[in-house]
Amino acid sequence: MKLTFWGAARQVTGSMYLLELEDNYRILIDCGTNMERNLEEEEENKPLFPFDASSLNLVLLTHAHIDHSGNIPNLYRDGYEGQVLCTTPTYELSRLLLMDAAHLNQKKLQRATGDSNKKKKRMARLEKKGDLYLDKQVDDSLENFVTIAFNQKFQVTDNLWLTFIPAGHLLGAAHIILETKEKGQKKSICFSGDLGRKNYPLHVEPSPVPEVDYLVCESTYGSRLHEDNRSPEEALADVIRRTCINIPGRLIIPAFSVGRTQALLFTLNRLYSEQGFKPIRVFSDSPLAHSTTKVYDRHSKFLNPESQNFKQKHGRLFDFQNLTFIESEKASRAISNHNEPCIIISASGMVSGGRVEQHVAANIGNPYCTILLVGYAAEDTLGWRLLNGQNTLRIKDNEYAVQAKIEKIDVFSGHGDQQDLVNFVKQQSPQKLKKIFLIHGEETSMQTFANRLHDEGFSDVRIPMKGESFEL
């Protein structure tokens, strides 16, 4: 079989890997949006996919995050006619995320429609990018999703078997194990997806995977260890006491709508329900997060035992006194008029687009406001600029002096750190494992992780280039 790396190769986003079997059966594992794409370096009229979409037989999806699922509608647009196999929660979360992307695309097209030179240039850029889809394309693709249970070997063809194993990173997230038989010889490969971490709110811990011949492993935190050893409850309680209780302040938490917001809301519910915290007004300002929270609640059987026990005891995972879900943009803007101490959780987590930008702009000059970053912020995003101590911040053509306090905790990061990744790989035998391929990480992080794996006795660790193929 042949494996080609078409995405998240020496970068973080755009996961997409093509596995071609001996009988020419072609499987695409993940089909994510490349958020690091540089249009200026691309040729004119370059197709979105570097392969013939109609030649694919099957698509497998590790989890719903848009950097893994975001280009699936375009795959069908370009001729793919097969199925997408994933877990039930992944299907439901993918529906939300893809529809949200379609709505954003509609807004982009509306802003680019017109006769002015500025609008024409904007439309030309969108046309060159070639990855916009609308509601209908999402609906058409979702009709072909088929859900598969965890931990049950599923026979795809006479010579191909598939198993989804809980990865812990997100509701429904899976490691994918593929087993095939070629010329009477059995071969196996594991695609890690994104690896979760232990003791994370809501999510199950990553399950062990069997020994395989080849391992494709993410490396997001390949060079880093999580800094904060406190529990999520301890870390969040400390911040709330200092910012909303000891002083009558305001706490803004930029958080991704799918996964991160639910972990924060559940942790707040635990603080109020079990640790006697006086309920402070909490605004969850993201319609996507609200819809996602309903999916989490509906599929709580996929969450960790601690969460399930809490739900059985208290009735609800997320609803608590003084929690308000904000839907309309008018209601979002009105939060600025709330004068009591409050907590605002809003997307996006990197302060890159979304309603959180208006909350940051409205409060960045308030010395009684704290902005708490709870996850990774890519270089040059507003979140990254805040973390790097900029004295001023430019938001939508306006310059603001930074007088709010800026803090960071990493207990809500959904990725396993370097030691978690090492422990995941060490489930494999260095003698049996033929190759490890590192993907989904910054190149420097991959190299650091590769060196660590060499020290652990794994001799053949590869860092593929985009478009590089390997005969397995």
From TrEMBL:
CDD domains: TTHA0252-CPSF-like_MBL-fold. Residues 13-256 form the Metallo-beta-lactamase domain. GO terms for molecular function: hydrolase activity; RNA endonuclease activity. InterPro entries: Beta_Casp (IPR022712), MBL (IPR050698), Metallo-B-lactamas (IPR001279), RibonucZ/Hydroxyglut_hydro (IPR036866), RMMBL (IPR011108). Keywords: Hydrolase. Residues 261-386 form the Beta-Casp domain. The keyword Hydrolase applies. The keyword Chloroplast does not apply. SMART domains: Beta-Casp (SM01027), Lactamase_B (SM00849). PANTHER family: CLEAVAGE AND POLYADENYLATION SPECIFICITY FACTOR FAMILY MEMBER (PTHR11203), INTEGRATOR COMPLEX SUBUNIT 11 (PTHR11203:SF37). This is MBL fold hydrolase. It comes from Siphonobacter curvatus.
